[in-house]
Amino acid sequence: MSTRTAPGPRERLLDAAQELTYSHGMGVGVDTLLKSASVARRSLYEHFGGKDGLIAAVLERSTAEDEADYQRTMRAAGENPRDRLLAILDRLAEVIAQPGFRGCRYLAADLALADPDHPGHAVTRAYRERVHCLLEAEFVALGHPRPAHAADQFLLLIDGTLAAGVTRPDTDPAASARELAGQILDVPR
């Protein structure tokens, strides 16, 4: 017989912060986080050293989940690098269509965290570098003459798609990005 254990204070704080920082922004108050997680203030400091540490931990957790989603999406698209890259934009269309979509968590964090030394910035930079590497590997496999540059451009399409998805909800930014992606993908070799 297995026993089910309830999440501890650390997990409850991460869950609450992941939800609330996405739905209400990085400026969500500590008291709101603590109340939502049903934990004492002491737990925040014991597990994360304060709100900044919690924000960085939430971003680390989110980046791991999103990076895994990119990899699943690309694997599901098969072996063709072109199909794998375009599948990312198709997946973004699905993400944008979900109820509660609020845009790119990482762009929002970078804009909201005014302190350039906030630990969250290091997390978002590292995440973008890993996504860039995933994209660049696909462009290398495609035989693109400038794979790093193409990955830069494709990452810009991803960022733009997510931003337009929240700021211009009556448009189809993923379809537009998919069309523009052809110009990156179809460079003569």
TrEMBL record:
Alphabetized UniProt keyword annotations: DNA-binding, Transcription, Transcription regulation
PANTHER family in UniProt: HTH-TYPE TRANSCRIPTIONAL REGULATOR YJDC, TRANSCRIPTIONAL REGULATORY PROTEIN
Organism expressing this protein natively: Rhodococcus maanshanensis
Lineage: Bacteria, Bacillati, Actinomycetota, Actinomycetes, Mycobacteriales
Regions recorded as binding DNA: 29-48
Protein name in UniProt: DNA-binding transcriptional regulator, AcrR family
Domain HTH tetR-type: 7-66
Gene Ontology terms for molecular function: DNA binding
Stored InterPro entries: Homeodomain-like_sf (IPR009057), HTH_TetR (IPR001647), Tet_transcr_reg_TetR-rel_C_sf (IPR036271)
